[in-house]
Amino acid sequence: MSLASLLLIGFEMARVSIVTVADGVMGAPPRERCNRRIDNWSRQLVKHAGIELDVHGLEHAVPGRAYIVMSNHQSHFDIPVVFQALKRPMRMVTKTELFRIPFFGPAMRAAEFVEVDRGNRRQAIEAMERARVMVESGMSIWIAPEGTRSRTGELGEFKRGGFHLALGAQAQILPVSISGTIHVLPARELRLQRGVKVRVTVSPPIDPGDYGRRGLDELIAAVRGIIAAHV
Given a cut of 90, is residue 147 above it in pLDDT? Predict the structure, then answer.
């Protein structure tokens, strides 16, 4: 990828981060303003990376309904790709390490992204409670239940936190399968490949209430199987 494109991506991330941090200093920025910034930010990143986005099954995501969105995780570019594919107000549950990035981390915090410290059980539980409240307020929450990016593109094992969240919030799970972002920006690499075709498949939602807490393992297996079928 050209130096000019890398600089454009860096500028776009810095620009939206700085103005959101400034809003946060003045008080919590309105959600609608953050929604517009996230949409513009993700659109620009997809454009600068030259991603050819191919979305299937969007009709399964009912407009105005809050979901627990669950997807596989191949690359940091999953983030702008999923925001552009789903085109709905949404926030992520993401690892605490990303919140340590200057400007970008404080901007995510100001925009209500949910920080979870996987090494701190109490903080992780509190983070899931914040996410539950956000879902109940009408905001979809996106979780990558693998917990980390796949180095090979193969689907890893799913962690339970997001499924407990879905059960507690009584929110449907929207399974999303991502294919191709690993070729845009693989895990632990900085070199971007332009012009990659990325396919996003949205499957019909699953009601965790049909499984209950006793059926948690079956629920996890069902969601993982659906996502895996389209990766």
Answer: no
Q: What's the CA gap between 124 and 194, in Å, rounded? A: 36
Contact between residue 205 and residue 97 where contact means Cβ atoms under 8 Å apart? no
| Residue pointed to by tokens 């517009």 | 36
Domain locations in the chain? Answer: 3-228
Rounded CA-CA distance 231/223 in Å is 13
* Nearest CA among 40, 39, 89, 34 for reference residue 61: 89
CA atoms of 193 and 36, how far apart (whole Å):
27
**In which order are the strands placed within the sheet that holds 173-179?**
52-56, 197-202, 173-179, 68-71, 140-143, 90-95, 114-116
The CATH number of the domain covering residues in 3-228: 3.40.1130.10
* Paired sense of beta strands 173-179 and 90-95, if any: unpaired
Q: Evaluate if residue 29 carries a pLDDT over 80.
A: no
User: How far apart are the C-alpha atoms of 89 and 53, rounded to whole Å?
Assistant: 19
Mean pLDDT rounded to a whole number for the chain:
85
Terminal Cα distance for the chain, rounded: 25
Q: Could you tell me the CA-to-CA distances from 47 to 6, 55, 66 in Å, in that order?
A: 12, 15, 27
Closest CA to 58 of 29, 88, 91: 88
